[in-house]
# Entry
Amino acid sequence: MSLLQDLLHKARVKSPRIFHINSGSCNGCDIELITCLSPRYDVEQLGIHLEASPRHADILCITGPVTRNTLEAVMNAYAQVCEPKAVVAIGSCGATCNVFAGSPSVVGPLNKYIPVDVYVPGCPPHPDAIIDGIFQAAQILADRGVREEAKGQPQK
Amino acid sequence: MNFAGLIRLFLFPGLLFAIPAGWFFVWAEHKVVARIQRRIGPPLLQPFWDFVKLLGKRTPARRGIDANLLRLYPVLSIGSLIAALALLPVFPANAGGFSGDCILLVGLMEVPSVCYILAGFTSGSIYGEIGAIREALLSVASNVVMLISLVTIAVTAKSFHLTDLAGPSLNPGHWVGVLGLLLCIPAKLRLNPFSTAGAEQEIYAGSLTEYAGAALGLWELAHALEWLLLTGLVATLVLPTTLAWWIYAPAFFVVSFVEVLLLSAVAAGTARLTLERSINFYWRWAAVLACMAIISSAVMMRFHL
Amino acid sequence: MNILRLILQNLRQGTVSFRLPHTHECTSDQYRGLIHNNPDGCVGCGACAYVCPTAAIVVSKTPTNYTWSYEPGKCTFCGRCIDRCKPGSLSMESKLPPLYATMGDLDVSYTMEKKKPAPRPAAVAAPAAAATPAAEPAAAAPAPSPAD
# Structure
């Protein structure tokens, strides 16, 4: 790994910006995600910052099973996040639809539509678990960035 | 350009000093806000890591948007901010600058704001347009006060040469002018009481909603330089010009830093005002104060007081 | 100027944040984490699968043995299965469930032979309670229906 790539890898680990999408969640996970930003668990010390626009973000935090109404928004936001990116599914819903499984308006789970890098189990997950998940996603993202650059720019 | 001019442009307070100092100020702002909210806050190198990371993002070309135009705006902002920093009368004893450079400084200081507005409209996003309109209205409101304040300072110094303006003065008009400038800085930096233009989460990211990757990183750098320029301008107006250079340079930095702390504390302690109230504040209160200052200064100048 | 007092107070009192990455104990011993089944104690009654709101626990039976499987990805960590477990073979961790990268990483499944002596403790207690003969088929009969 060259010095420049090393620097870039470190920068990606140290500055994960997140964008949060609620894809039909019951709000439990959203409240726990906002708790991470609160003074108690101040994620800013890890450089994690909640972005307002998906185009500024690196990590997509998706809560909830994917409902029919939110599917388009989720796909849209995923497309807007620039490479390298990572996806964290927060809560059991993102993984399996949880209690909403089988509902006619739920089209999830999430990994049918976009690749998920980290699942954070819990209903809702503990804020510590969410922070760990984002942190792990940042590392996955940095490694992926290095791999892709070594291969050459993937055609988009 | 002469040798001193090049030093000002590239060393102090230009590129080499300005970029790390600007990042430091941005970090200090976040840290102060965090401390006031009883948080720990970001690590020291955070703005640097953010910048490096954004340079490493791959941004695919998009249909319907002129990417080169969008990339031009932050570059233009950074260029004009560096040029404006080079005009600042640091080391006024060395007599840099030229007569009327104060007017050039005002013009250069406006370029980032104009670029921000244009970026919002060029991006074609509805949120970008809302952000641009708000920024335009707010800069019209705050610029009235800023221009009157600068003219007040110029009237008391009887010159438009920044070197003559620098340094504290016994004339109260000078201090009212400095106060007016300080009142304008939050609007220029889109800080909290007057943060309607950026309006994080309310209109997504305002003008910069469609920005990504390196261009966004350049905008963040431009914002850091804006911090340095505006606080630095006030610092040159209050620091005594007779200091030796090795005292002046750290003092310049310290005074700017104190302003950053003050502005961040104000930002953390206030809520976002609506656009109407922000404009009201500038035109009804700040502008009246500034007008009174300029009239009294003019009267004092007329009667050689 | 209440805000000034608040700012000064906050600055004086210092931070309340945890240092991250954490060094502190995240959870209390009341925290509801992953469920563990002790295969030795399990009698395969299927009560846990019956009360599970998300079908995270599934018990399927064949004439000779039964399979107890648990999918933490579906679990709401409500603890109802623990409450219903008569033999007490289910237990809950009090730590955070681990993160996982692919679906099904945490899934657990046990296949066990049907225990013949399992009803025996009930039979020992039979003279005392007349309800046990009724309870015994009830535990065996409804279990397969929620499992499919």
Summary: The longest strand of chain A covers residues 17-22.
